[in-house]
Amino acid sequence: MPFINEFSYKVALHCWRALLTLRKRGSDSIKKTDWKLIRDIFFSFLKIGPVTFGGGYAMIPLIEREVVWKKRWITVKEVTEIFAIAQSVPGAIAINSAIFVGYRLAGFKGAVAAMFGVLLPTFWIVILLSVLYLYVQDNHYIEAAFVGIRAAVVAIIAYAAYKVGLTSIYDKTTWLVAITSVIVLYVLQVHPVFMIVGGILTGLIAVYIKKYLGIVTRLEKESEQID
Amino acid sequence: MLLLELFTTFLMIGFVSFGGGYAMIPVIESEVTVHGWMTTQQFTDVIAIAGMSPGPIATNCAIFVGFHTAGLPGAIISTVGMVLPSILIILIIAKFFFQFHENKYVKFAFYGLRPIITGLIAYSAIEFAISNDVIGELSWYTFSLVAIFGLSLFAVTKTKMHPILIILLSGVCGTILYS
């Protein structure tokens, strides 16, 4: 999809400019940079990274323990709010949370420090494992092992779908949307990006249509209603 | 301009990866295969390794794909592309709308977005099953893969076994059965 790439290149330029202006504004409000705090943020998140196996969600309790209970940087209420936002914007939840906490504590520099703290150790571990994999992938036994592993990965992805489905699919509309999306993907091979944009539009339109028809929509699984 | 291509691709993925973790896998998979950087089967191995590594799975996938495609610079560029949207969006929200997730329209959007993400992950499970012969012609080989799939699914749902352990055990099964 070359046009998407061209588009995202332009988006990248805009991002960079926006980041620069944000940074300028940030440095106005925080006059002097507390480098000790920034170093502290970096090392706190650095410690969390390499011990959290099992994806971003595994990091959540550790981040909370570190920033709320050990460092006493922010309150439980704030960190819960941060996790909620981190989940509702694009990107990995652990990285989003780290950026948010870092920004809260020390502005733009804090955000960058926290992000690198989370990323650096795992980056090198993944590189190490990749090198290892590229070395051994042609080995007879490893090749056989990966045939089995691939079947297990399919199961893990199927389970991920089931788990996401538990909180996403709970009424007729959400069932319809989910099943239609699988059929559309299978038959038309639509690019996932269009599906995601389509999902956002479907949500907005569906709520208004149901409102027009006088049907109450539950926006989340736990009985939160709008009329 | 392989590096630029990696950067813009993962930048785009970073912007649309709602839901984190496994929800990003269908998007990354489609981009990686469209660009011809990897086959779906190779990408399955990437997911296995990303799942065995500490840290967020989607970022780990980006690092591996970047490394596989263009070495260390590729890995760095892909990671930067992936996290740049995160940092930008979080900074904007932290500065201007802290009540973002309480917003009415955001909630409306998620009402449609969540089931679509479920559909995307479910479809990618089917796609991965086909390219890795879990869904295939009737043979002993297919049957054995279905058995590993079934046992893994049972282990992850019923016994709550850790995915890393499941990956390792299925690797042992693979070595015994297919070498």
Automatic annotation (TrEMBL), chain A:
Query: Which protein family is it in?
Result: Belongs to the chromate ion transporter (CHR) (TC 2.A.51) family.
| Keyword Cytoplasm appears in the UniProt entry | no
Task: Give the primary localization class.
Answer: membrane
What this protein is called in its record is Chromate transporter
GO function term, MF aspect, one: chromate transmembrane transporter activity
According to the UniProt record, one GO cellular component term is: plasma membrane
Q: Specify the superkingdom.
A: Bacteria
Topology relative to the lipid bilayer, per the entry, is:
Multi-pass membrane protein
Q: Name one Pfam family in it.
A: Chromate_transp
Residues forming coiled coils: none
Keywords assigned by UniProt? Cell membrane, Membrane, Transmembrane, Transmembrane helix
Keyword Zinc carried by entry: no
Q: Where, per UniProt, does this protein localize? A: Cell membrane
**Residues that span the membrane, as ranges:** 41-62, 82-103, 110-135, 141-162, 169-187, 193-209
UniProtKB/TrEMBL annotation, chain B:
Any keyword S-adenosyl-L-methionine? no
Show the stretches that span the lipid bilayer. Answer: 6-25, 46-69, 75-98, 105-126, 138-156, 163-178
Any one GO CC term of this protein is: plasma membrane
Compartments it resides in? Cell membrane
GO molecular function of the protein, one example?
A: chromate transmembrane transporter activity
Pfam families named in the record: Chromate_transp
Superkingdom of source: Bacteria
Which InterPro entries does UniProt cross-reference here?
A: CHR_Transporter (IPR052518), Chromate_transpt (IPR003370)
- Predominant cellular place of this UniProt entry's protein: membrane
Give the record's membrane topology.
Multi-pass membrane protein
Ordered alphabetically, the record's keywords are: Cell membrane, Membrane, Transmembrane, Transmembrane helix
**UniProt entry tagged with the keyword Transmembrane helix:** yes
Give the record's family classification. Answer: Belongs to the chromate ion transporter (CHR) (TC 2.A.51) family.
Descriptive protein name: Chromate transporter
